[in-house]
Amino acid sequence: MSKLSDLVALCQEGPxxxxxxxxxxxxxxxxxxxxxxxxxxxxxxSKLCYxxxxxxxxxxxxxxxxxxxxxxxxxxxxxxQKTDRIICVDTQKHAGNVTDFVGxxxxxxxxxxxxxxxxxxxxxxxITGACATxxxxxxxxxxxKPDQDVATALLYxxxxxxLNLTRGVTTxxxxxxxxxxxxxxxxxxxxxxxxxxxxxDLKAYGAAIENIELYxxxxxxxxxxxxxxxLVAILSDFILSLIEVEVAIIASFREDGIxxxxxxxxxxxxxxDLLHKTLKDLxxxxxxxxxGGGFISKERMPDLGNYPKDYMREMFLKVLTEEEAxxxxx
Length: 330
Hints:
The N and C termini lie far apart (40 Å). By secondary structure, the protein is α/β, with parallel strands linked by helices. It has helices spanning 4-10, 26-41, 57-66, 131-142, 148-161, 171-181, 186-193, 201-211, 229-240, 271-279, 308-322, and strands at residues 16-19, 47-50, 70-72, 85-89, 104-110, 122-125, 213-215, 218-223, 247-254, 257-264, 284-287, 291-297.
């Protein structure tokens, strides 16, 4: 891993912003919060920022529970300068899910695969189940004990992004869970994990169930109304829970475009690659081997013709068919 001291040295001059992806989830929030607290130990003050929305109940509960302040970009843009330091956390510049802020992206700490190569003055990009795992490791290797709030937040971020240790888990994730557990508050952690669904979510579940189509072991469904990013991801996990499905593809039709989420339990199908290849001429997408997200803007929707749901389904199936290793799931 890169040295924490190098990152601290890089942040000594000018305002420092820690930027997550546009729709921060618990892992992104925990990672940014943990890094902010750790940098403060070395005298580096920073602001957490994002563009988009906090649209997941679990994310809102985290912000309230730990009194975390995250600044929307619109409230910062007027005062940000090109020389301000930006640390990308749980995302990478030009990843498709992050706005290019005014400022200099000098550092990146992320656990996702890289689809658009960039050069940072400080880079720590390693494949783990959660980005919070990397931040927890910074604490352990630097000899700094996380306070109870930080430890609980990081532990929650790891559990959420790995779907309670059932998705994309690495040895490093397990090691950091063990490290964090002795510092966390079990009661707060338990409270965060309860009641994370809202009544309005049931309508989206119903639409996803009603519209699901199976093609071999591929489950495809579309929700004909707007869903938050986080809910689209939850729906893809839900479809993947079917015994007949090894690859789940969910689309939500929104005013600003089409949000897509893919989950894969098939070793031969990389969810992030599937999204990247399918959307390369229409939008953007990427992610891990087991999960990924993508987006088609409303400006490109006319390219999908009169039956956009059918067009998207055929695009995904075409890419899967072209992948020789994926033939066994169709």
